[in-house]
Input
Amino acid sequence: MKDADEYLNLIKALVVESSIITHWNILREETQGDLGLYRFRLTLQDRSILEMFERYQIVEGRVNVTKYSFHWQDSTGRLHKRWDNAPHHPEVSTHPSHVHDGAEEHVKPHDAMTCEKVLAVLTEELTRR
Output
């Protein structure tokens, strides 16, 4: 990865090529050299919403995500899951990474997530329904 723009273009390609996304909005995107961030709102085929946010830096050709949140909710606003790395749950073994599963207060350990991993999980979930 040569710079932040290249990574942002990769994320956009994943979104455009995903079979489960019916609509997407760019809420924010910024790149400057090796630093970048984006926030997208995606509407999925079941009318649920996925808000994706990553702040990242390209270091020696590799993407280093410093902050992320992938918030998936149904069309009425009820939380399905939110994967994030906000440091507000030090009791979780995978701190700072964790998942809010079904409810804000239901926090579980979870390895760090990426846009690609989240889209794969949601594709599998929506295909099973």
